Amino acid sequence: MKRLYYTNKRMICIFAVLFIIGVYATTNTYPIKLLHHVSSFSYLAMIILWAATVRIRIVDKEVRVRILISCAFMVLLFFLRMCKYTYFPEDAMIREYIWYSYMIPRTFFPLFMFAATLYVEPVGSRRTVRRIEIILIIISTLFVAVAMTNNLHSLVYKITVHPDKEYTHEVFYYILMAWRIALTVGILVILFRKCALSSARRKWYIPVICIAVSSILLLWYQINGGAPKVWGYKLFQLHEALCIPYMMAFESIIQIGMIPANNGYRKLFEHSGINACISDKDGNPVQTSLGWSEAGQDEDHRISKEPISGGCISWIEDISAINRLNRELEEVAEELRDENDLIIQENEVRAERVSFETKNRLYNRIAAAVQSRAVTVNELLTRADTDAETADSRSDIVYAALLSAYIKRIGNLILLGDEKGTVSSAELKLAIVESFDYLRLNGCVCLIEAEEETELPAKAALLAYELFEDTIEDVRTKLGTVSVELSPGDMFTMNIALDTPAEGITSDWKKAQTAAAGGIISVRSEDETYYIRLEVKV
Q1: I need a labelling partner for 169 at 20 to 30 A (CA). Which of 4, 109, 271, 301 fits?
Q2: What local confidence, expressed as pLDDT, does residue 4 receive?
Q3: Is the pTM of this model over 0.70?
Q4: How far is 275 from 115, CA to CA, in rounded Å?
Q5: Are strands 276-280 and 481-487 parallel, antiparallel or unpaired?
Q6: Which residues of the chain have pLDDT under 50?
């Protein structure tokens, strides 16, 4: 950025011009004899400009504020000089107190410069630093009070002739001078102790030379009783000898890096590694980083732009990592899709296998439940084909139909129970009714009573139907009348009443299976009627 590149040079030129004007106005009476305060304005402008740069560059608020306060006291010093010689030229008393007032900025601006160095990092305890600062301010205030009351004790100046102000320096003047020298030396000592940059420490002589110049000028001023003259003109005033070298010293301290400042942005921009360019409003490049080239745009690099004050900034963004990640994500996504397809197929195969296993298990269970009866059905039907159109043949067919009904209905009940875990009492009733249909073919009187429909545990329903079937098969050839009563509730009850005893059914019938279903079987005979009762807790 060429404009930024020449900023320091322009500032140096401005300061040089102001300094030359100040010197020229101090040492000449013509042609600007009517503008004898031009030198003060020149130095004031220098101080104000430098304070403005400090305000922009110094990042630490504590350091920045104290340097600006010092600049304000420098401005006050030159303003007091202007007041003394310009606005109150005839009033001797006011001029004398303005002269005493010189001690205010001369005492406080070194103090606040010293206080600024205390806040340069590293700072140990800020509370301790603040206490030290307050103590120094109190001491300086007492010194200033002594100087302002010099007419009462003459400890600073002993004025021998009024109003020409011939005077001699007294002991307290040298105490004040020693105080300023101690603060100045303290500034250098503290900064050198805090600085950790070897490159800055190697340039220690720069601020020391600036302070030494001020000390030499002040020493010369004291020895000669004023500033030296060349061809009858003063080379400098006390105010310039105090302020300008201090400004130069602190500026050199900032430049060599003892006080952190936000300069060096141009080099930082060039060497940042960001491939960027700052352009003006017309699109002309003003500052570019090293290696900037708009031709570097490809699928892994793209140019981005953002507006900024006075123009815009363009930079080449490296998106190769993003593209690589996108490609990796696509590969992973493809792998996941393939894997997901495999998982879906595996789940389908697993579900199909589970379905087959479930069906096989159910079929095996049904087969185990009906195997003996299926064999009997096959034998009966084979015998019926051999002995066709006989009474025994008809009886065998009816018996085979009764067994077939049981095979069909028990399979249905097993399937329903396995699916839901319960079986409706209506399904049990339908199974019994179908068996009754085939019993009636042999002239048997059948009756069934069932209350409202309810859900029964699958084990209870299967146990009840199997008990009914075993009972019927036991008395099939002798059975004349049979009735079944189904009573659902908290305790499901099935009552079977027969006109002939079922000798194969006792209270211990399938005891283990009955206990597993939580049931109880009771058998009794009364008035030539045989009763079988099953109770199962629902």
Answers
A1: 109
A2: 36
A3: no
A4: 42
A5: unpaired
A6: 1-7, 23-35
pLDDT at 3: 36
State the Cα–Cα distance between residues 386 and 108, nearest whole angstrom. Answer: 139
Q: Taking every pair of C-alpha atoms in the chain, what is the biggest distance, in angstroms?
A: 171
Residue 484 DSSP SS3: strand
Token pair listed for 293:
């080239």
Q: Is 513 helix (H, G, I), strand (E, B) or coil?
A: helix
Distance CA 534, CA 509 (A): 11
User: What integer pLDDT is reported at residue 283 of this predicted model?
Assistant: 79
Q: CA-to-CA distance for 191 and 200, rounded, in angstroms?
A: 10
Question: CB pairs under 8 A, 24+ apart, for 17-25?
Answer: 18/42, 18/43, 18/45, 18/46, 18/49, 19/43, 19/46, 19/244, 22/46, 22/240, 23/235, 23/236
Residue 163's H or E segment, with its range, is none
Tokens of 445: 């009187």
Specify whether the CB–CB gap between 376 and 384 falls below 8 A: no
H/E stretch holding 457: strand 455-457
Element (H, E) at 54: helix 38-57
Query: Interior CA angle at 356 toward 350 and 362, to 5°?
Result: 135
Instruction: Say which residues have a Cβ less than 8 Å from residue 458's Cβ, sequence separation at least 6.
Output: 413, 414, 416, 417, 418, 420, 421, 422, 423
CA distance 67 to 187: 12
- CA–CA separation, 106 vs 137, rounded Å? 13
Rounded distance between C-alpha atoms, residue 191 and residue 120, angstroms:
8
Q: Is the peptide bond before 228 cis (omega within 30 degrees of 0)?
A: no
